[in-house]
Amino acid sequence: MSKQKRTAIEPTRADNYAEWYQQVIKAADMAENSEVRGCMVIKPWGYAIWENIQRVLDGMFRETGHRNAYFPIFIPKSYFEKEAEHVEGFAKECAVVTHSRLEDDGKGGLKAAGELTEPYIVRPTSETIIGASFAKWVNSYRDLPLLINQWANIVRWEMRTRLFLRTTEFLWQEGHTVHETAEDAMEETRKMLDVYAKFAREYLAIPVLTGEKTESEKFPGAVNTYCIEAMMQDKKALQSGTSHFLGQNFAQASQIKYQNREGDFEYAWTTSWGVSTRLIGALIMAHSDDNGLVLPPKIAPSHIALIPIYRDDEEKKAVLEACHEIEEIFQRQYFEDIRIYTELDDRDLTGSERNWYWIKKGIPLRIEVGPRDVAQRAVMLARRDLEARDKKSVPIADLKEEVLKSLREIQDHYYNNALSFREENTRKIDDQKEFYRYFTPKNVNQPEIHGGFAASHWCGAAACEEKIKEDLKVTIRVIPFDMPEEAGSCIACGKASQKRAIFAKSY
Amino acid sequence: MSKQKRTAIEPTRADNYAEWYQQVIKAADMAENSEVRGCMVIKPWGYAIWENIQRVLDGMFRETGHRNAYFPIFIPKSYFEKEAEHVEGFAKECAVVTHSRLEDDGKGGLKAAGELTEPYIVRPTSETIIGASFAKWVNSYRDLPLLINQWANIVRWEMRTRLFLRTTEFLWQEGHTVHETAEDAMEETRKMLDVYAKFAREYLAIPVLTGEKTESEKFPGAVNTYCIEAMMQDKKALQSGTSHFLGQNFAQASQIKYQNREGDFEYAWTTSWGVSTRLIGALIMAHSDDNGLVLPPKIAPSHIALIPIYRDDEEKKAVLEACHEIEEIFQRQYFEDIRIYTELDDRDLTGSERNWYWIKKGIPLRIEVGPRDVAQRAVMLARRDLEARDKKSVPIADLKEEVLKSLREIQDHYYNNALSFREENTRKIDDQKEFYRYFTPKNVNQPEIHGGFAASHWCGAAACEEKIKEDLKVTIRVIPFDMPEEAGSCIACGKASQKRAIFAKSY
């Protein structure tokens, strides 16, 4: 593949997408693999993005009436066994604590000792352990709705791991709520999905699809699973958040009963919903380019890199003075609901090295402050969404307005880019041959890269879904809410179908 | 013991301190024990206090140049074995993960399967796992200082547990830093201890002592451990935070080496420091009374309970209107750096029931809004630090100022109360018989309650410390920084001593 120009990240997306992803993370210094199987170390630049995700979502959860709490990391095996589908879904990949101490192994090392009478599972999700508390907390309809959220670490012994996307340990939030009626629980399930969609669109600048999962893709133990689904730049789908209507399944498993308005006891209705550090993977793959990480301003840990340029002490003095003046301008300044942060980078490196350092980290704006600019009371402003060489002289007097306007434009630019990309790579397909062609790799070097999303009819049969999966490794990612009813024939079996589903390869 | 009046919490502190503690937590709905051995469930009111602790401390850590990151929860056994004192200190009480899945046990249940080649320990502290990353991150003196903090959950298989004070799982922050020189590392160790002391005094209203731990009480693997130490209302000491100078011990164990300014490679100098959910236990035991939880305004999840009182719909309308007006007054209002939150409690309960509900939860202020008050554009203001019946009529026009003033007074009141209590219960003791008498329980029903803190001479010998511990269950809690040098004789052996230490029973 011929290259137009040298890029900061090698390989490029077009050359090797999977490796490009790893290199973007490395170049931005966001995370690294640890020697603990499948566990990552989240470095400060990556963790700061997670903190921003937490802060914004936490505010949204609070506004919708939820309160945070914390439940044990360990789940007794017996709790886990209470919901059959649930245990089936998680038992194959979980960390099991069997001992409570280490003792001398007689060979100069240590061995596990103090065997537990009942093994504990490190939580792969908390429905059963939280359910045990809810059973105590809920007595009457007056106790409902019970709206709880937990920020926690989760462990699933995944076989193939990839930074942020799939790791043995990851960080997440899990909402768990209890309701009087099925309608109330369903309303909550949909409300929280809307919160996720709003967050993904307005903060992460990711135009997610919202809708329902099929039976085979839903959460183990749920009645219905709803999701936000995003398209990555390799045209694969990434499930970015899920909200589950659990019916009375977990209420029965955990004995969450309440006295209703008529004085009778009945099982409550529950929901759960979560997003995780996987969102950082979504963010990277939705926006980043061959020069590294790209961050929408509303989720960036920092917004402006200030790069002083000088040759001698006299220039240094004037230039740094201007830098401090600019820091002052943005001190406690907000871009909408986001506080603006600046990074003064006065390291002993060339201007180009410092510019590229911040380009690779995805900082939205760079401001170069040189002696000639300062003499004219101006600075050079560069945007991460434009070419690195596209700099614009801005008078210091206008800088605040220009920065606020640029941040808004950059945020919109990324969203619109991602939306166009998804639209360009989504096709209504009614012909089975065309469907199979669509999902056949075009490039032998990147067999994972295929056509994109197909909006095709599906009759609802699990067998049809399974056949497509076996033939093409393509699955139904979501049955979108906004997909109109429409007569057609199932892409797999040709039988009558009322609705299209979104088929794609996925992470 | 005769009672002067009925109290909201039974038993009282004087009757049964340990049980009183549990009942305060229950009445304030802060936390409960789970069925998972020694693990607690932190309920919303308790967790909100932890979130406030996190928010304030996190800001202080950031101001002192630290960045947050996240490291794996699992520590390979081989990492753990690298520092001899360290493993000795933690191996006896740790959760060991030995398997990676559950499988059918042939008897209708599940058993652990997929044995790991190397067991993992659930982190009891993270020096060794973080050290493995630091060894990669640090290459040159230019990479130093490296200033990292982690907010995480921790597991120690404690034998006797008590809510917040000692639990198998707890939440904490652990700072880990790397420095060029011993001096730099020591400066960091002391700086972070000062941060903790400032936080405890100004936010938790706890007048902590600061100083050094003796050899027998220091962190396993540390060269020096410094601490903040508080007196609880049963006159026992509670270690509330520690900061460790680790010398080169952990740098050697993890091979954290750097190229110094002369071009030679040498081991770096490291520190670690932490506070945990134990601080919530300290908060409860430092201030709460026989009517329940007491919360300093600067750490309270919410500040004002608004209690409307009415008999009919007409009164209801006027009273609720006034309540909303008051909510408006405090919307986005700050008390110093703390945002004020109000709770409108319009539940179908008597005014007295609602008042006592909030008294037991420790909310600093209660505002009763009744029809006669509203007619006069006034409300009744009650303070948690005064008698429940001490209410004061305040014109709505003056309410904001009165509330701000009251919050400041309450904050100071609690600090001063705690300080007086500690001073009244600290005694310089030079006579061994008096020392032994001081630590003999006065009340046979509460054998744990004793004299308080003794400031007594200690020669520095571990044997003397050990003898006092065996005889009286009294240990040296801290050698305070501000204790003047002074000639005396060791309280245990009578040999010459240059300094007093603080002896006490402790949690």
Quick summary of this structure?
The structure is a homodimer of 507-residue chains. Helices cover 33% and strands 28% of the residues of chain A. By secondary structure, chain A is α+β, with helices and mostly antiparallel strands.
Notes on the protein architecture:
The structure is a homodimer of 507-residue chains. Chain A has 507 residues and is an alpha+beta fold. The first copy, chain A, has 3 domains: 17-287, Bira Bifunctional Protein, Domain 2 (BirA Bifunctional Protein, domain 2); 304-406, Rossmann fold, CATH 3.40.50; 426-504, C-terminal domain of ProRS (Translation Initiation Factor IF3), CATH 3.30.110.30. In chain A, 33% of the residues lie in helices and 28% in strands. Chain A is built from 14 helices and 27 strands. In chain A, strands 3-7-8-14-11-10-9-24-27-23-22 form an 11-stranded mixed beta sheet, sandwiched between helices. In chain A, strands 18-15-19-20-21 form a 5-stranded mixed beta sheet, sandwiched between helices. A 3-stranded antiparallel beta sheet of chain A has the order 4-6-5. In chain A, α2 crosses α6 (182-202). Chain A is globular, with a radius of gyration of 26 Å. At the A-B interface, β2, α2, β3, β4 and β5 of A face β2, α2, β3, β4 and β5 of B.
